[in-house]
Write a structure and sequence with these properties.
Elements lengths: L33 H30 L7 E2 L2 E7 L6 E8 L14 H14 L3 E10 L1 E3 H18 L3 E10 L1 H4 L6 E4 L4 E3 L4 E2 L5 H6 L27 H33 L18 E3 H7 L4 E2 L2 H12 L5 E6 L4 H13 L19 E4 L6
Parallel strand pairs: 3-4, 3-12, 4-6, 6-7, 6-8, 7-11
Antiparallel strand pairs: 1-2, 2-12, 5-13, 8-10, 9-13
Length: 375
Amino acid sequence: MSSFGNPVGGKPPGGPVPPRGYYAPYPHPPRRRLGLWFIIFVLFGLLVLSTLSNMGYYLDSVASSGGPTTRRSGMEETVIEDHGATDKILVADITGIISSLAVEQSGANMVQWIDEQLEQAARDFQIKAVILKVDTPGGEVLASDQIYERIKAFQEESGKPVIASMAGLAASGGYYVSAPCRWIVAHPLTITGSIGVIMHSYNYRELMNKVGVQPTVFKSGRYKDMLSGERFPDEISASEKRMVQDMVNTTFTRFKEVILEGRNWAQDQDGETGKALSDDWQDYADGRILSGSQAFDLGFVDELGDFEDAVARAKSLAGIQEANLIAYEKPFSLSSFFRLVGQAESSSKIEIDLGFDVPRLEAGRLYLLSPSYIQ
């Protein structure tokens, strides 16, 4: 008798006689598709979690309509520092290039995200002040101005102060969004200033000629291809240059108005406690960068210090002794998970490491951006 299969030379019941020495193996059991079932189980679990999470947000909003809650408007409140207090101070970050185009993982761009946080802070009576942590070289003119308007409206309508806490970099658009704040705190070594506007583009016509590429353009008007990099530099008329420069100058005038309005409003609120603009401040609004100490001397900031000093100032302006520091975050959702997966699968870019980060500037857009970040 063989140790496996049928006996050598044996006749299986009901079948033909196999050749001598033949071994009839036992059939293997069917393979289980464990990988497929595991994926199905994970996706089902995520679906259940997302459903329960959304139900929790709904029940919270129904149970506490009009009152404070840690989950509202699709945002989740997290405690940064718990001091056992009833009052709260919201900490909102403005980090990286200020843009209305770059969509965050939350699905909202920077302007929308700041707007959502301020709206929630205005409704929550336990939030007494907002600290705006600024660490940015600037960005788009329109996005910076929209954030400026939202901060200004928030303070006027809610009566709650916004304190700007400048980190390592708060230049150009970074100072633009800080200007409307009730109080501005900068570290002595903070890089700020860079008050100015820039429109940046490339002319690549000579490169096109070298590779044998000739553009064919059909346009409805003489200025329809303004700022096109396909034209020779001597084809750009003086009137075109004047129109572009006029746009830059108009935006620059707006920048200075924002500074003057914001600093004068803060001075009216704080009196001699705050720092007034120096008489010659416009002489330094020529694009140059300033240290925090220089900005303090010129009246662009109210106080030299760090984040802890900004927290102390927020409590002082809000008239409270103690407060918990909180932040808003976007909670996990199944839609955001699939969006991130889709972005990962569709990404087929080739990136070259140049040793520095180059901001993605678009031709024809006005920017409030520190010149050291223009490559």
